[in-house]
Predict the structure.
Amino acid sequence: MVHAFIMVKTAAGESEGSLAEIRGLEAVTDAHIVAGNYDIIAEVDGQEVYDVLETVSSSVQGLGGVSDTKTYIAMG
């Protein structure tokens, strides 16, 4: 099992709508609006690293209002 943290930057005023959509994705186990360089942090689980990257590239980055993502794979 691979666990990852996805940092998501959204357009102004889009954080709450994007958060609801991100929370609805099957691989997402939790997500929160945060203060800082990014607007949302999502936790994602997948069987392989490929599954996590597929969720990010095909699902999260394709949502309206999402302008940037950064993926951190948990090492332990």
About this structure: The mean pLDDT is 96. The radius of gyration is 11 Å.
